[in-house]
Predict the 3D structure of the following.
Amino acid sequence: MGPRPGRTKTAVDKVRLGKKRDVNARFTAMTSHYVFEPEFCNPAAGWEKGQVEKNVRDARHRMWQLMPAFPDLDALNDWLEERCKLLWTETAHGTLPGSIADVWEAEKPALMALPTMFDGFVEERKRVSPTCLINFDRTRYSVPASFANRPVSLRIYPERLVVVAEGHVICTHERIIDRSHRQPGRVIYDWRHYLAVVQRKPGALRNGAPFVEMPEPFRMLQAKILRQPGGDREMVDILSLVLHHDEQAVLCAVELALEAGVPTKTHVLNLLHRLLDGKPTDQPDVNPPAALTLSKEPEANVAWLMMGYAPREEHAMRHDPAGAASILGRVVSSPYFKKASPRLSC
């Protein structure tokens, strides 16, 4: 004997004549998973369920009278489980001797072992908008940019939403439940979903709404690096590191670069590789020994290279880059250059 639902929408798509029902696909999958057959009641025939509804009403009064406040749904469920077990020990079975808890313990050895927990969700087909968003329950959620304008499958759980495409989970969002119709719908962004967009258009990083919710170290680095020429591209390259490395490692490298006062892409990459290789990032300063001190500092003076050249060639060296390259090539290959090259003395 399976459960006897009436016309609950989570199980039935359409109520037909008598006890016939069009059962939805997910409820059919659950009945096959737990190996039971549902038996439906006639509409408006509550007596067919025996004393079930009356017992449910009485149980509500016994359980909820002493209900305290709870911080979240998990705490409520834990309290409810313990409260039910306590009532089982206090309530007589009625047909068999002992309490409900005593009869339950005696019945356990005869029960079948439960299979793995059924993955219970409601599935809907969605189409991703050009701005990489899907709409559900007056709230829009972001999807990776590579799936823009494509169909996806949305799996709806009580506390989360899972987006699936091509047989793989592409993203997960915490489900937002907001019954107020007076406020406009919310938009939930994940900035990682838009990295493919800013790789093509780095300028979108400056005023893009998805990147407002980046972690604080990334935003501090962005404020510094965007002041430099080419900072858009460098910032995009740093953010794209989370696609190939652990995000916490990248964040740690960015924080170290900010502490060192060197907010550049090269320094962040250097620190990240040191973190991944397990090398220390705080190397001590190297003080060279006195024996390596130069007795004569080199001078940035190339006037001696022009010795023996005509004024026309000197003018080319100063004002014509192409001609200068040609002349310098001849100078370096000449025997005079090899003879006159200065040597550093230590």
The chain has four domains: 12-110, 122-188, 195-277, 307-340. The beta strands are 12-15, 21-23, 122-127, 133-136, 139-142, 151-156, 160-165, 168-174, 187-188. The chain has a mean pLDDT of 81.
